[in-house]
């Protein structure tokens, strides 16, 4: 194993320092051309060491041995959040002038765009070389989580439409067997995040993917029985491609000609069994999740209590370097939203989830976020 790069005295500026280019695996898979462009520009403009990690452990090892090299991340918003959280946990965030080359779709790099980073690969790479490191405030919680842009607490715990339109839920539902929302990629009641990108469901008869998982709902159970015993109770009459021997003795890959028609008929019967919204006696689905009963305190001052439900809550850094968080509470009752600024905000109440930039976390019963003034620096283009 090579020795760590020597760490000379920190220069007055981040420009001119050698670079550690960390290329997120997802960026390599989704847009290899942008990754190649960024690598060519950076290698031509500075001494660059390239890291191609396969997981968070390799990223942590590379950052621990970076020496005087300035970290440059090539990836999307989730990769940025992971790196900032890692550097914060290592207590090295304040010393690292972080650079970013956003790679991904517009929705996956929205946070980078809101922070002022160019989303074009060439412009972002040139910003890494010639930009200015600007300090930014950071929202941190007691569990070590970070928020770079905005924190949002939406209404209710109801799943957002994954099972809508199917009786007893449907395949690919956001709710797990314990009734908790699984849209955040968690599969445990302690709210810990999964990093494998799955939704916590085991493989189902529909195939792979979020809507190909057996979530235990009625349609999935029906298909599971079909795959195991056949529609009419005989082995081998499963859906196409189930790999079981058919009634005519055909083996793997046998596709009975009547399976698509039977599946279509079953889908039609399922749709006909749905409750009609708006008719007398029919079940009604709420148009929006119910409001939440939360106790919210800002710097120890009570803003709202459990007896006053809220529609949503947002918390963000008011201004770069300001050291205060902008808190907006939208009450369920009539009246406008409540605005205030504080250095710390505490939210407590029944189990709730929250959106920390691009990540959905929880459920938790209490969480406190504190503003760390100028806790990290990001390379941004020169101001005109």
UniProtKB/TrEMBL annotation:
<dbReference type="InterPro" id="IPR016064">
    <property type="entry name" value="NAD/diacylglycerol_kinase_sf"/>
</dbReference>
<dbReference type="InterPro" id="IPR017438">
    <property type="entry name" value="ATP-NAD_kinase_N"/>
</dbReference>
<feature type="compositionally biased region" description="Basic and acidic residues">
    <location>
        <begin position="179"/>
        <end position="199"/>
    </location>
</feature>
<feature type="compositionally biased region" description="Basic and acidic residues">
    <location>
        <begin position="245"/>
        <end position="255"/>
    </location>
</feature>
<feature type="region of interest" description="Disordered">
    <location>
        <begin position="226"/>
        <end position="258"/>
    </location>
</feature>
<feature type="compositionally biased region" description="Basic and acidic residues">
    <location>
        <begin position="226"/>
        <end position="235"/>
    </location>
</feature>
<protein>
    <recommendedName>
        <fullName>DAGKc domain-containing protein</fullName>
    </recommendedName>
</protein>
<feature type="region of interest" description="Disordered">
    <location>
        <begin position="168"/>
        <end position="213"/>
    </location>
</feature>
């Amino acid at each position: 194993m090579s020795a760590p790069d020597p760490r000379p005295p920190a220069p007055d500026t981040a420009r001119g320092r050698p670079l550690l280019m960390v290329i997120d695996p997802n960026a390599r898979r989704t847009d290899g051309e942008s990754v190649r462009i960024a690598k060519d520009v950076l290698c031509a403009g500075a001494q660059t060491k390239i890291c191609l990690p396969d997981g968070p452990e390799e990223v942590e090892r590379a950052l621990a041995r970076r020496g005087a090299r300035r970290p440059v991340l090539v990836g999307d918003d989730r990769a940025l959040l992971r790196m900032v959280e890692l550097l914060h946990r290592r207590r090295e965030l304040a010393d690292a002038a972080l650079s970013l080359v956003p790679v991904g779709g517009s929705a996956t790099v929205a946070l980078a765009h809101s922070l002022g980073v160019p989303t074009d690969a060439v412009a972002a790479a040139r910003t890494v070389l010639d930009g200015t490191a600007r300090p930014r405030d950071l929202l941190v919680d007691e569990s070590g989580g970070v928020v770079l842009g905005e924190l949002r607490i939406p209404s209710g715990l109801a799943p957002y439409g994954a099972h809508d339109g199917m009786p007893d839920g449907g395949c690919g539902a956001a709710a797990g067997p314990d009734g908790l929302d699984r849209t955040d990629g968690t599969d445990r009641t302690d709210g810990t995040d999964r990093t494998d990108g799955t939704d916590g469901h085991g493989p189902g008869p529909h195939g792979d993917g979020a809507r190909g998982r057996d979530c235990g709902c009625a349609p999935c159970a029906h298909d599971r029985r079909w795959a195991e015993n056949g529609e009419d109770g005989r082995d081998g009459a499963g859906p196409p491609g189930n790999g079981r021997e058919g009634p005519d003795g055909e083996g793997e890959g046998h596709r009975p000609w009547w399976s698509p028609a039977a599946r279509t008929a079953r889908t039609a019967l399922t749709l006909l069994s749905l409750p009609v919204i708006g008719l007398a006696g029919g079940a009604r689905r709420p148009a929006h999740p119910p409001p939440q009963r939360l106790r919210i305190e800002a710097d120890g001052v009570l803003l709202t209590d459990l007896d006053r439900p809220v529609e949503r809550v947002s918390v963000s850094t008011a201004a770069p370097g300001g050291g205060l968080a902008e808190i907006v509470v939208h009450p369920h009752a009539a009246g406008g939203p409540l605005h205030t600024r504080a250095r710390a905000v505490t939210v407590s109440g029944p189990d709730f989830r929250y959106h920390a930039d691009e990540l959905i976390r929880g459920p938790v019963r209490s969480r406190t976020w504190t503003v760390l003034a100028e806790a990290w620096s990001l390379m941004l283009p020169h101001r005109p």
